[in-house]
Amino acid sequence: MSRAIESWKGSYTAPELAAKYGVTIEQARIIISSNGPSRHGCEVGAVAFRNAQKMRAARQPVGAKGNR
Predict the structure, then answer these.
(1) CB 17 within 8 A of CB 41
(2) Which end of the chain is more exposed for a tag (fewer CB within 10 A), N or C?
(3) What does DSSP assign to residue 61?
């Protein structure tokens, strides 16, 4: 069983990470939980998450004109 992220000393808090990287607090909690207490790991995870969001937003919906 994992520890609550609030008990990790020196890590980002969810509101801190959310504000710094423009994600929701819930998304920040997931990033922190997925990457552990390392600030560096959380920063890398947040950048990867934001890049994935941008890539997904840029995709055309299936069936869109010219997408065959």
Answers:
(1) no
(2) N
(3) P
